[in-house]
Design brief:
Elements: H1 4-16, H2 23-30, H3 34-46, E1 51-54, E2 60-63, H4 76-91, H5 96-112, H6 115-127, E3 128-130, H7 142-154, E4 158-163, E5 169-182, E6 185-192, E7 197-202, E8 206-211, H8 224-233, E9 239-246, H9 249-253, E10 261-266, E11 279-286, H10 292-299, E12 303-307, H11 309-326
Parallel strand pairs: 3-5
Antiparallel strand pairs: 1-2, 4-5, 4-8, 5-6, 6-7, 9-11, 9-12, 10-11
């Protein structure tokens, strides 16, 4: 639920948009009662914002004609949305001119933000990583995101209330290593202190985050983005698939990215020339297998299915269908 300060700022924005707003309309937009709207108006008057009361059938409140509000007043959520939008745009591969405009816009926003908001947003940007799969990102909860970012920066434990994909609720203590934006979702990766193992959590499934006393030592090794990709590729699903595919890493990654499958070089058997033959072991997990035969066909590379047998049957069935289509007159 928005805090009173955020509602007061929202009220000011509604009045700034022009015209007279009735108490009933403002109460509905803010999700409060009429007397609360009047209290917020009093707070604006205390801030020297000239809100006028208009009497009559169509009366309500409006900003005094000719008054201009300060050039930029953003709540935490609004500032977060703007800066993350600029960062995501920069990651999308903009031109040099657009990149310059992006940087100057970010700098202007930071200069006029209250210090406590600017500090928290800078902390988030330091803790944030992106994978190579951008997308139209879901909007994360601002307070959860900023709290976890602060915990990442200062290596502080954080307590989270989490709901998994089966709807089970739990409270966990997390040593957060970093925040990662990947394929339209936000993730935090770190060690689950209770079980002592690394875990990756979706931010949209975290209902609350609280920083705890104490500290931890950040691990060496892969960065947060690589940890998230590895976690997604090895997540528990119904089927475990192991393949050997003949080709280059680039050819395979074009159809089976790091978030889907893990790769390792397969040692050549007797008689294979290492210089001309290269087999890669591919491992992945999936809830369904029906999407995989068309992907393997699109690779157009030799492959061997080690497991499961069900995948062999699906590949054979696809091959039979394609053969029958090819022979149709």
């Amino acid at each position: 639920m928005p805090r009173p300060t955020a509602r007061v700022l929202t009220l000011m924005e509604l009045l700034q948009s022009g015209g007279t707003r009735t108490v009933a309309e403002l109460a509905d937009r803010l999700g409060v009662e009429g007397r609360t709207v009047r209290r917020y108006v009093t707070q604006l008057l205390d801030m020297d914002v000239p809100v006028e009361s208009v009497r009559g059938r169509y009366g309500g409140y409006r900003i005094a004609p000719g008054y201009r509000l300060p050039p930029l007043m953003l709540s935490d959520d609004e500032a977060l949305a703007v800066l993350l939008g600029l960062v995501a745009g920069r990651r999308a591969g903009l031109t040099t001119t657009q990149h310059t405009a992006n940087e100057t816009a970010s700098a202007k926003i930071r200069r006029v933000l209250p210090k406590h908001i600017a500090h928290r947003l800078d902390t988030l940007l330091e803790a944030l990583a992106f994978t190579d799969q951008p997308g139209e990102f879901d909007t994360p909860d601002a307070e959860v995101l900023l709290t976890i970012a602060d915990a990442v920066r200062h290596c502080r434990p954080v307590s989270i209330r989490y709901t998994d994909h089966d709807g089970r609720h739990s409270e966990r203590t997390l040593h957060a290593y970093g925040i990662v934006a990947h394929a339209g979702r936000w993730y935090v990766t770190g060690k689950d202190a209770k079980i002592g193992e690394d875990r990756t959590f979706r931010l949209d499934r975290i209902a609350d985050a609280r920083t705890l006393p104490g500290s931890f030592e950040a691990p060496v090794g892969p960065g947060p983005a690589q940890r998230v990709l590895s976690a997604l590729a090895t997540a528990e699903y119904r089927h475990e698939v192991t393949l050997r595919i003949h080709g280059t890493v680039g050819q395979i990654r074009a159809r089976l990215p790091a978030s889907v499958a893990s790769l390792e070089q397969h040692e050549p058997v007797a008689g294979e020339d290492r210089a001309t033959e290269r087999w890669l072991r591919v491992e992945l997990r999936a809830e369904r297998l029906d999407w995989l035969p068309p992907v393997l066909a699109s690779l157009d590379r030799p492959f061997v299915i080690e497991r499961p047998d069900e995948l062999r049957d699906l590949v054979t069935a696809l091959a039979d269908r394609l053969t029958s289509y090819a022979h149709q007159a």
